[in-house]
User: Which sequence fits this backbone?
């Protein structure tokens, strides 16, 4: 979910993550989620702070109706209840969902690259036209 590839999950990335997990949050709710585990007060989640969510959930330190508890519950599976096959199916489904999200992101990136290429071609054509125009106007 670190779309900025900076090693942190910021507010917008957390928003997207919660939406993809099917548990969208309000802007204020997202801010509170970050604030609850943000040890260095930088307004974003490091990998350590992200793992702290699950540590706090396991220790019972999160409020039951908080966004962080929702995140922890959506991302865990109890093998003793689901069994090994259930856990396998759960993680395969997660991997499939991530794969399809990656495919979607790849399509968006391809569209953006195509637009950049078309814009570059337009600039080159304009420059060539200006060059020819200047040759005739002298």
Assistant:
């Amino acid at each position: 979910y670190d779309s900025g590839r900076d090693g942190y999950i910021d507010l917008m990335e957390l928003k997207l993550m919660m939406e993809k997990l099917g548990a969208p949050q309000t802007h204020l709710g997202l801010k509170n989620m970050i604030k609850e585990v943000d040890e260095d007060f930088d307004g974003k989640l490091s990998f350590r702070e992200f793992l702290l969510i699950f540590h706090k959930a396991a220790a019972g330190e999160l409020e039951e109706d908080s966004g962080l508890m929702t995140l922890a519950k959506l991302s865990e599976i109890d093998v003793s209840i689901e069994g090994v096959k259930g856990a396998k199916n759960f993680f395969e489904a997660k991997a499939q969902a991530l794969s399809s999200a990656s495919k979607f992101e790849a399509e968006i990136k391809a569209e953006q690259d195509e637009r950049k290429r078309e814009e570059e071609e337009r600039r080159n054509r304009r420059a060539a036209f200006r060059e020819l125009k200047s040759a005739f106007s002298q």
